[in-house]
Structure formats: C-alpha cells, structure tokens
C-alpha cells in the first residue's frame, strides 16, 4: 500500500490517507536496512511488516541512528572499491586454480563406488541410445583383445573394476575411446581399425585407465557444478545478462581442467606401459594418427592439449 513514514518524538509511524496503518513503534523496535547505492531501503517492524522507500536521504534524516551503513561507506570510496575488486579477482583466481580442483578431487575420491557405478550405467545407456551401435568386430577378435587387455585391466583391482566394451560409433565420434565414471572403457570399432599394432591399442587403454584411476569423469562433473556456483556467488545471479558474461570464462576454465586431465592420463599411461614392457612411444604414434589436424581457434578450443605437445611430453617421459 502507498504510505508515508514519519518519525516523531522517538516513535515511528506509517500513515496513509485513512490514518495510521500500523501502531506507533519505538525507534529501537524497528530495523533499518543498510544503505547500498540507490537500492531501496526497508524499515521492518517487529510484527513482520516492512516499509520500502527509495528515499535514502530521507531515511538517513529521519532515522540518523541507523547511519548510512558499512556497505555504503565502503562503496562510496574509490580505494575500497579497488581493494574489493582486487580481493574478488584474487578469490576467483585462487578458487579456480586450487580450490575447485582440490575440492572436486576430494569429493570424487570420497564417493562410494556405487555412485560411480550408477553414473557409469546412465552414461553407457545414453551413448548406446544416441551415439553408438553394437560392435561389428568379429567375436574372436573381441575375445583376443579382451585377453590382450586383461593384465592392464586387472592392475586397479576392484577399485574400480575395469571392463572393456566395443561399440560401432557414429560418424561424429569415429575413432575414439571413452572412460566412463565407474570403470567401463568403450573402444570404438573405428579406433581398433585405425591401430597398426596391438601396442597402440594398449597405449590407448592405459591412457583411459588413467582417466578412471584419477576419477576424471566424476571430477569434471563436480568441477563444472562448482564453477557454476562460484559464478553465481561472484556475479550474483547466473541468468539473462550475467549468463552471457560468465559463459565464456566458464567454458575456457573447463577446457583448462580437461587438458590437465589429459596430461595426467598420459603420464599414467606412460608409467603403466613401462610396467608391462610396452614402449610408450606407441601411444604417441596413435595420438598422431588420431589428430584431426585442426588449427587456429578450433585447436585452442579443444578439450585435449595440442597433439605435438602431448607427443613431445610422452617422448620426454619415456626417455627418463
């Protein structure tokens, strides 16, 4: 209701054309919101009623004991504004660089295997329905590859258990391998056909086992959720205009996380291949054959580090 607030002889009254809307309240019985820029102020009464006004100067004159508030004091001085910007930037940078990855790693490691297994089955159901078809590899070939992969798959034991499946992928996916959250690794028929030796397939398997061992799928999901929460905290509301502002940084940050996961999986693959007597350079050869040879922005906006960079790192680590 349209009304007027008055403060007379230590009492606060809210009146309209018909008279008082509320019983007069003592000054110390009402709560006055802090002043922040030109946002409306609220005078709240003990019965739950609230008077709203944009006349900040009037509130400060009638109720001087409320003062302008700490927020108004800070936002009115440039040095505090600049300090606030620096603190915010430092908080966001530290959260993205250390906080979010560390928290995601801890959360993913603490989740019971049943959660990873459930996510695994959901993802597999989705890709089987939308992206892949039953494998056309000969049953004998599938059995041979399962026997070839068995020593590597057994290395993690049951935490989580590794199982390898074969699928015929759509053209969009093509030659690829996917590590699902619960330990399922999917090899596409196209990838098997692209390999020139069993050692190259072993290299790919070792890389995907690295993703499973480090819980990359679940960590990436958790990190994406946490980045959304962080954006909401900093921006205030990820919707409409703010979503357009935050979308690109979030995407680029997630790409950075993905690249770090790929490097971690490559390192795991090199160590695993060495333990099983396989030259890690077979993985490098396979990566070069898989490289779509993108350039420019297309390569930069990739979830994987540039192939030459990965190949160089594998060769360097293999030579150590």
TrEMBL record:
Binds 1 zinc ion per subunit. This is M48 family metallopeptidase. The lineage of its organism: Bacteria, Pseudomonadati, Pseudomonadota, Betaproteobacteria, Rhodocyclales. It holds the Pfam family DUF7092. InterPro entries: DUF7092, Mito/Outer_Membr_Metalloprot, Peptidase_M48. It comes from the Bacteria. The keyword Transcription regulation does not apply. Belongs to the peptidase M48 family.
């Amino acid at each position: 209701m349209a009304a007027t607030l008055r403060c007379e002889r230590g009492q606060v009254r809210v009146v309209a054309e018909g008279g008082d809307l509320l019983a007069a309240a003592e000054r110390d019985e009402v709560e006055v919101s802090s002043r922040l820029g030109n946002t409306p102020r609220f005078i709240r009464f003990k019965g739950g009623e609230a008077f709203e006004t944009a006349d900040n100067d009037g509130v400060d004159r009638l109720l001087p004991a409320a003062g302008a508030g700490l927020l108004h004091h800070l936002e009115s001085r440039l040095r505090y504004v600049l300090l606030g910007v620096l603190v915010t930037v430092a908080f966001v940078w530290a959260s993205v660089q250390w906080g979010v990855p560390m928290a995601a790693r801890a959360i993913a490691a603490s989740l019971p295997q049943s959660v990873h297994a459930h996510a695994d089955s959901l993802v597999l159901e989705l890709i089987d329905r939308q992206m892949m078809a039953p494998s056309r590899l000969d049953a004998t070939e599938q059995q041979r590859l399962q026997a070839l992969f068995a020593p590597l798959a057994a290395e993690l034991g049951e935490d989580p258990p590794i199982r390898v499946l074969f699928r015929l992928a759509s053209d969009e996916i093509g030659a690829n391998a996917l590590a699902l959250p619960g330990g399922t690794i999917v090899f596409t028929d196209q990838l098997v056909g692209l390999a020139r030796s069993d050692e190259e397939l072993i290299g790919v398997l070792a890389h995907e086992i690295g993703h499973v061992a480090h819980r990359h799928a679940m960590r990436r999901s958790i990190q994406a959720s946490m980045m959304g929460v962080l954006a909401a905290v900093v921006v205030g509301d990820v919707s409409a205009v703010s979503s357009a502002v935050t979308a690109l940084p979030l995407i680029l940050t997630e790409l950075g996380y993905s690249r770090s996961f790929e490097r971690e999986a490559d390192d795991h693959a090199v160590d695993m291949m060495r333990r099983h007597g396989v030259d890690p350079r077979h993985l490098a050869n396979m990566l070069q054959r898989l490289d779509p040879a993108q350039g420019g922005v297309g390569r930069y906006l990739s979830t994987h580090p540039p192939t030459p960079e990965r190949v160089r790192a594998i060769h360097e680590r293999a030579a150590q």
